[in-house]
Amino acid sequence: MTTKIERVDQQRGKNRQGFLVWSTIFFISWFIRSGLKIAEVENDTVFTVLLVVLIISLVLQVVYMFKDHRLDVEMKQDPRLKEAMNDERIQLNELRAWKVGFFALIGFIIFAAIVSLLIEINDMMLVYLTALLIGFGARNTAVYLLDR
Fold first, then answer.
1. Sign (positive or negative) of CA dihedral 77, 83, 88, 93
2. 63 with 14: CB under 8 angstroms?
């Protein structure tokens, strides 16, 4: 039999894992879409399928985000849970994860700058959004891996 702290920790891990899986599916679909857009491929069927995958993955990410938020509310109501689930190790992991996300974002911007020397990228909004997605994705991945 597990304690409430262990149950909450396991549930938080499952929520983060689910969010990470659907984020990865989103990123893969986004990169395929971006590559096709940069290559100026005109195939409405492929873009429609990718759009459906993007929407489904976003909806499931929101579901896991709300589950994690509900768990955070439960943790804040119980002082023992709050103390156990927000110790110095977890705070340090959060700080490290933000650093990983920041450097991933910077790395992608440098990569995009180098690629733009070789091919012309007409859609800068695509580059900006992709950079943000990579930064947040790297942060979420780092949080999940550091908390394991």
1. negative
2. no
